[in-house]
Design brief:
By secondary structure, the chain is of the alpha/beta class. It has 7 helices and 7 strands. It has 2 domains: about 5-130 and about 165-195, 3-Layer(aba) Sandwich (Rossmann fold); about 130-165, no CATH class. The chain is globular, with a radius of gyration of 16 Å.
Length: about 200
């Protein structure tokens, strides 16, 4: 909830460092495509032109994203694997992964980050969950109050338990050895990490 706001704040900070009125972004594991839609609206409000590539492996999610992004100019849906994106090196300004990395092991995350560093010209933006006891019990209560969907009630708390602590996230980014990451706490129980590449 409100995850896109953290992403937009991070992107605003990055765009403030560049004079260009255009940017391109690869959203890895786009899911239903809600963040690309928000990004396009944000860019339009600031008279920026943008190209958003929404990459998703699951066919069901791609179908949902097609409905969600219908009518939004500048969004291109592609079915593909985030571990081996079908793009040339330095082909986008930013690579974004939102609530995607918590599904992987530390070693797999490091491999993904190194792969994405070859694609992004400016920066990698990571927004994800932070493991914390309050987050686990809070999400259990929230899902029981707000949804009858059994899958959501089971999956949401599991996602929190699979996530990493702030210290673990910082260690992962350091081990990736692709440059310095600015890692910040984001409410509620999330983190936003920006790795500037400066190519």
């Amino acid at each position: 909830m409100g995850n896109y706001q953290h992403v937009l704040r991070g992107l605003a900070r990055l765009q403030g460092e560049h004079e260009s009125r255009h940017f391109s972004l690869l959203d890895v594991g786009t899911g239903s495509g809600d963040i690309p839609v928000r990004l396009v609206r944000w860019a339009e409000d600031r008279q920026l032109s943008t190209q958003i590539i929404a990459l998703e492996y699951q066919a069901v999610s791609i179908a949902q994203a097609a409905l969600q992004t219908h009518g939004s100019d500048g969004i291109f849906l592609i079915r593909g694997d985030g571990a081996t994106p079908p793009f040339r090196p330095a082909s986008v300004d930013y690579v974004l992964a939102s609530q995607f990395l918590n599904h992987f092991s530390e070693e797999a995350i490091i491999a993904l980050l190194r792969s994405w560093a070859g694609l992004a010209r400016r920066a990698i933006i990571i927004s994800d969950l932070v493991r914390h006891p309050f987050a686990y019990y809070g999400i259990r209560l929230l899902t029981r109050l707000c949804t009858r969907n059994v899958m959501t009630r089971v999956d949401a708390p599991l996602s929190v338990t699979r996530a990493f602590t702030m210290g673990e996230w910082r260690e992962i980014f350091q081990r990736a050895d692709i440059g310095a990451f600015d890692v910040r706490w984001a409410f509620p129980f999330r983190m936003l990490a920006i790795g500037s590449l400066g190519k």
